[in-house]
Design goal:
Number of helices: 4
Number of domains: 2
CATH topology of the largest domain: Alpha-Beta Plaits
CATH class of the largest domain: Alpha Beta
Helix content: 25-40%
CATH architecture of the largest domain: 2-Layer Sandwich
Strand order of the largest sheet: 1-5-4
Number of strands: 9
Radius of gyration: 17 Å
């Protein structure tokens, strides 16, 4: 089990913002500072949210809020998206583009656009055991339990032929 943002409970609402590339050390420091500044003042209808953020693998921003204390409002969620847009603009990166999957390689994380997933599977780039970043996790608990899932255990399973047993 992975432990991220350990002072927040498993039920904390989570948003993942993966980047196609690893941040430089300077970018990571600046982004961490922006995240800390944001979460320290983030509020919903004037009430402070219990929230935190982190960067994992040098390219995935995690943003979480303890919803057992206070739910973020639509406006406060919009504020977090505005922050991600600012980070995108400041560092010329893409964080809000949901049209990609990220998978684990020996070198780190690799990216495939959704429209090329089937082709990547046919070419053997992605196979049933390929570990796919769980970008659809909605709580910290889900992410802590399954940061990565084998392709055969997520929505990509539909692209694999069923295994037959000989007999």
């Amino acid at each position: 089990m992975n432990t991220y943002l350990t002072h927040l409970p498993d039920t904390a609402r989570l948003w993942l913002y993966p980047c196609e590339r690893t941040f430089t050390a300077q970018e990571q420091q600046a982004i961490q500072r922006a995240l800390k500044d944001f979460t320290s003042t983030w509020s919903s209808h004037g009430a402070k949210l219990v929230a935190d953020a982190d960067i994992i693998f040098g390219q995935i921003i995690l943003l979480a809020v303890d919803t057992s204390i206070l739910l973020p409002s639509g406006c406060s969620i919009d504020q977090s998206v505005d922050l991600m847009r600012k980070i995108e603009n400041d560092f010329q990166i893409k964080l809000l583009d949901q049209g990609k999957i990220f998978y684990k390689t020996a070198q780190g994380l690799a990216v495939v656009p959704f429209h090329r997933v089937k082709q990547a599977i046919e070419q053997g780039i992605i196979h049933q055991e390929t570990l796919i970043l769980n970008t659809w996790a909605q709580t910290l608990g889900q992410l802590r339990q399954h940061l990565f899932l084998p392709a055969s255990q997520c929505w990509l399973q539909r692209y694999f032929k069923p295994q037959t047993t000989g007999g």
